[in-house]
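JOB MANIFEST
job_type = single_chain_structure
chain_count = 1
residues = 320
[input]
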Amino acid sequence: MFAAYAARVDKDQPLDGLELGDRPEPTVPAGWTTVDVKAASLNHHDLWSLRGIGLGEESLPMTLGCDAAGVDADGNEVVLYSVIGSTGHGVGPREQRSILTEKYQGTFAERVAVPEWNLLPKPKELSFEEAACLPTAWLTAYRMLFTNAGVRPGDSVLVQGAGGGVATAAIVLGAAAGLRVFATSRHEAKRKRAMDLGAEAAVETGARLPQRVDAVLETVGAATWSHSLKSLKPGGTVVISGATSGPNPPAAELNRVFFLELKIVGSTMGSKEELASLLSFCAAKGIRPVIDSTLPLDRAREGFVKMAEGDLFGKVVLTV
């Protein structure tokens, strides 16, 4: 079957390890099933895998891709929950959880195998392309907002780095839930898009906000850390799920943290139950993922280039 896979890892030139071509059909252990992939979406996790982060040489070649929507062996339209082993289903209770492509072959292929437990019904209101955007970036944003930030309708949230998949999802979901959403970006066009999606205001990265906020959603890391802390109200919360600009800010600013009683909460992905709630939320409220571009699987390299260069707003989707 045709697939986009990591043949090598290279921390400096990650795209040099990306290959497109034939791969073996997936193996199907007991308790697993196959899904004919209709659409899959790119995440920064795929780029990190090509750099060797979370993917060792011993696991190569590895079909990339965490997210997908498709049709299962019984003809049902489904969405994949991409965390394998979170409850032991299909792998046994002692195996550590992992995201597809860290240990098991991913979704950038004509077919993928996953534990039966990892499948959720695709809402009829969502296309395969839209549904394929939700299980990683949008689920991460959902958990950051509604589980870890502790915000309620009417509260204010700053989303750092408008344009990325998680940040874009957070703007759309936050606005739909009645939050006052603010956003930052270095690019004027992305700031305008953020406001079109429901942000109350969008400012240049590091610029003063119209007001301090109850929570900050942080995926940029070192470059925006100081601004995130300075933007919070006393007692506010910064939720961090990534650090695309690096994990080590010039200063931790612990004095600000303890003096203002700020809370720092780490957040990774989300649960299957949260994904089910996200799917229902999107279907019921007419929320649709922001898709930057849709490409056939054999043009996957173009999508990886867009992501590596930061030349996107929303998700890149690959269709099969």
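[summary]
The first helix runs from residue 44 to 50.
The mean pLDDT is 96.
exit_status = 0
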